[in-house]
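Thread: quick sanity check before group meeting

JM: Hey all, I'm pulling together slides for Thursday and realized we never actually wrote out the predicted structure for the chain we discussed last week. Dropping the sequence here so it's in one place. If anyone has concerns about the input, flag it before I start.
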Amino acid sequence: MTAPYLRIVDEIRARIASGELRPGDAVPSARRITRDWGVALATATKVLATLHAAGLTRSMPGVGTVVSGATGNGPAAPRPAAAPGPPKGPPAGPPREDVDLSRERIVRAAIAIADAEGVAQLTMRRIATELGVATMSLYRHVGGKDDLLVAMMDTVLGEEPLPATPPDGWRARLEFSSRLQWQGFRRHPWLAPALSITRPQLIPNGMRHTEWALRALAGLGLTQQQKMHIHIALFSHVRGLALSLEPEAQAEQDSGMTSDEWMETRQEEFFAVMRGGDFPMMLELFGDDLEMDLDEMFEFGLGRFLDGLERYLSAAASDGPRSAGQ
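JM (edit): ok, ran it. Output follows.
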């Protein structure tokens, strides 16, 4: 007997093969599948995952899951790049040389691809296709993917510059920069995984955030190393939460469900484990409709970090400069 999810997969596959669903058309969402076929959300999620694995669908930001153009079980054929202008010469000729190609255009195109599909899909060939130029022409402006990634990070970190006149007080200044960073991570989910703390890249606009934090902490009885440790600890809170943004965006596109909707499909499994084990506090917690909103967690963590830092600075003011790490 064929599993229910496979029957639904076959029906959607047939609609694609017949042309009823054409490349770029949205396929039924998980919610639509549960309603139209009368199955559970977990089954609907499996349908979408199977279609994606077969290369029949792909994720499109702002739209959801769409037909990729494939009609079989293999990977989807790549979508042809839009022509850069009126065709000239033989239609099958090589990509044109763009005299207006610049480092800035390449970086902007790369950011758009990474924003939409993640850094894993970012290749020099893909960027060249997007710009309608030969791949090798990119190397006249960027040294390679690593060089390009650094330029991308510098560009997006400079989108919302820190003000020339900072707010009054160290706390207001750190709150301001932390929220600016969080907003940047929100706009560009690939940014947090790309940044390194232990091996920092040479990113002037990132260095401006470090300089801002060090100046905010100046004159508070701290050593230079203590100020740097505070900055890294606070930035790690912001970046740490932001590391969840890219995989969550990808999971939402692949499944057609938000994290809350996905949790609904697993709720009974979690409750079964908690009831059968020694998890009374977690059982009570999940019974209260726990909210896992990343923005709320960011603000909560930021406030608690700065509350603790305030006590630490009060002690430093009383005791004088402490040894690094204390």
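AS: nice. DSSP finds 14 helices and two strands in the chain. The domain at 103-157 is CATH 1.10.10.60 (Arc Repressor Mutant, subunit A).
JM: adding both to the slides.
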